[in-house]
């Protein structure tokens, strides 16, 4: 599940080769409706349907069982990934892994910190006026509630979940604290309790390993076989 643009844009083909040249992996990537050569107009429901259709094709036409499929999303693609995986998990279909690179918690919140091409965040001038900021956020049609969807995925998993969140600290478009929000939502679904930011950070620190290059990895696990992992690296930007 890719970001905006098309499947051959920028470094994407190199990323595909990096996955396939050193392993026996196969990569299935599509252009969402309205992107690349795909017709139609993009919407949240439409992009989710495109993702569901692609995974359904992999399972039922290509014949790849779900326990051999890793669903990977980047940027906007992480929102599609969370929705697609939720669609299947609540129907009892679980995958070998779910990877979200440079993800975000939801679209309205992201707009207050998203910096297209590294410029001033779209709604940042409204931050000092929370009621006005919330008003503008309420007009966002496609919400892309990834945080809530990850929590539902965790709660609905019956046998196995491997969820990995990857983000770079120097991401100038989607700030890395968005990955923290995703991790918190998924982890709290494991603990089945709501912690304030200070308590959660203290709890998370006990489950984190820090490295000299300022990379850190946080891991939480629970029954039946659920592992949620967050990797925060110093460099990578949107190409993490």
Automatic annotation (TrEMBL):
Organism: Xylaria grammica
Domain AB hydrolase-1: 16-141
Protein name: AB hydrolase-1 domain-containing protein
InterPro entries: AB_hydrolase_1, AB_hydrolase_fold
Parts forming coiled coils: none
Upper lineage: Eukaryota, Fungi, Dikarya, Ascomycota, Pezizomycotina
Family annotation (Pfam families): Abhydrolase_6
